[in-house]
Design brief:
Elements (H helix, E strand, L loop, with lengths): L7 E4 L9 H16 L3 E6 L9 H14 L5 E5 L4 H14 L2 E4 L3 H13 L23 E4 L6 E6 L3 E6 L7 E3 L7 H11 L4 E5 L6 H11 L5 E5 L2 E2 L15 H6 L4 H10 L12 H7 L10 E2 L2 H14 L2 H14 L8 H11 L6 H7 L1 H4 L7 H7 L5 H13 L5 H14 L4 H13 L7 H8 L1 H15 L1
Parallel strand pairs: 1-2, 2-3, 9-10, 11-12
Antiparallel strand pairs: 4-5, 5-8, 6-7
Helix pairs in contact: 1-9, 5-6, 8-10, 11-12, 11-13, 16-17, 16-20, 17-19
């Protein structure tokens, strides 16, 4: 079997949960390598763990890949639909003497392990059935690989460098369980070889499996692919990334209001670099990605840096794209999405520089979208004092008669009012801000009032005056 001149990479998740951050990064590395060189990216679902594999997990993985924009060229292939291929490969190994039937029961194996541990020996399988003279097929059995006892296997890993393992350290691993379902190390070799995968990119937690798989490649007469084992992703405490470090599912970040472009950019940079550049378009990632710049040390997942990157991408959205992206998050707050999309766009653009996520953007837009605002008591106590009452009444009279209603005319009116009362702009702008938004932070007050419109502004000013009494 020959390999393609162009790279053929794959992502092969086990459907036992969501698409997590580490898996997504592996998928991205594989996808980018294929895209850069005009190759093929394959999606394979490794569903031989029948007890834990679920359709829900399959759907979640594909949903996550689709959201990230990772498009597969072939697949998805499912291992449980490829049992005939594994059976054929098993027969080849049995016929060539590279595999044998093992009749040891789970109880036998457990007793062997305990005895070995008690004697200070390795708990590896002791080869009881390795040289067995008879091999009946009607008795329950597994299929084991007859691993060589002498010599060594050398892997030239594209990230880790040379990896050497002595054959005496390799167990006679189980290839096929008693139920006829192949194990991971066997099925992955058959799949990668028959799908002509040229580059196997995966987490370095798989590094110990690679020499075993290399022996299987040789036993089956398959060409060996290039291996690249990328370092794990750690939390800020340098422990392996887990749920306690925050959301680890890529779709959870979507639900938190992150943009897929930002997540893709951040994940690729988490272990790969191109000089000092931090921000990459998708086209740039495809153009510049290479395994030669993947680091050898673990990447540390920094939620603050990811949020900073997301804020950058949020600022870069066009007004139309911003509105389109924000609408589902507005709906999720329970607020009605305005039918006047042009008005909504004007409102959201005023908040674009301030929000870090789409969830934040939707929450910040609440005073635009609903008249049911609640004043922050601390802010109201500080700024809506009796002394400002006459000033607000003067402003209210001017607002009622203002024409046209625009940022320019509002600016002129405010300056006229503060001139009559010998105040600085902030002494009036901040009470008005509290009155119309409920708090002390918002875009420029003139922009806010213009978007709210005359009627809604007057209702809120009147409420503030009434509160002052």
């Amino acid at each position: 079997m020959t390999q393609s001149a162009l790279p053929r990479t794959r992502f092969a998740p086990s459907p036992t949960g969501y698409l997590h951050i580490g898996g997504a990064r592996t998928a991205l590395f594989s996808y980018l390598l294929a895209r850069r060189q005009g190759g093929v990216f394959v999606l394979r679902i490794e569903d031989t763990d029948r007890a834990r594999s679920t359709q829900q997990a399959i759907d979640a993985i594909m949903e996550g890949l689709t959201w990230l924009g990772i498009e597969w060229d072939e697949g998805p292939f499912f291992q449980m639909q490829r049992l005939d291929q594994y059976r054929a490969a098993t027969e080849r190994l049995l016929d060539s003497g590279h595999a044998y039937r093992c009749y040891c029961t789970p109880e036998d194996l457990d007793a062997k392990r305990k005895a070995a541990q008690a004697e200070g020996r390795s708990p590896a399988y002791d080869g009881t059935c390795r040289e067995r003279s008879s091999s009946p097929t009607d008795q329950p059995h597994t299929i084991r690989f007859r691993a060589p006892r002498d010599g060594e296997t050398v892997i030239e890993d594209l990230v880790k460098g040379q990896v050497v393992i002595q054959h005496r350290e390799i167990d006679d691993l189980v290839l096929v369980r008693t139920d006829g379902v192949p194990t991971y190390n066997f099925s992955v070799v058959v799949d990668d070889a028959e799908m002509a995968i040229t580059h196997v990119i995966r987490g370095d937690d798989h590094l110990t499996n690679t020499p075993k798989q290399a022996l299987l490649y040789h036993a089956l007469g398959y060409p060996l692919p290039a291996f690249a084992h990328v370092p794990m992703i750690l939390g800020t405490d340098r422990a392996r990334l887990s749920k306690r470090h925050g959301a680890t599912s890529v779709t959870a970040y979507r639900d938190m209001g992150y943009l897929s472009d930002a997540v893709v950019n951040y994940l690729v940079r988490l272990g790969w670099s191109h000089g000092d550049q931090e921000i990459f378009s998708r086209a740039e990632l495809i153009e510049k990605f290479g395994l030669d710049h993947v680091g050898t040390s673990a990447g540390v997942f920094d939620p603050e840096k990811m949020q900073w990157l997301n804020a950058h991408y949020l600022k870069e959205l066009s007004p139309t794209d911003l509105t389109s992206a924000a609408q589902p998050y507005i709906a999720a707050t329970g607020l009605a999405v305005p039918g006047d999309e042009a008005w909504l766009t004007r409102a959201l653009v005023t908040l674009q520089e301030r929000a870090k996520t789409l969830v934040e953007l939707a929450e910040q837009a609440r005073y635009y979208l609903s008249d049911d605002i609640t004043l922050d008591e601390k802010a109201a106590t500080k700024f809506l004092k009796p002394a400002i009452g006459p000033v607000l009444e003067d402003l209210r009279e001017g607002l009622a008669a203002l024409a046209p209603w625009s940022v320019d005319t509002l600016t002129e009116l405010f300056h006229a009012v503060i001139g009559r009362h010998d105040l600085k702009l902030g002494k009036l702008a901040q009470p008005v801000r509290v009155a119309v938004t409920g708090g002390t932070a918002s875009p420029g007050i003139f922009e806010v009032l213009e978007i709210l419109g005359r009627d809604r502004t007057l209702v809120r000013i009147d409420a503030a005056i009434a509160r002052i009494g």
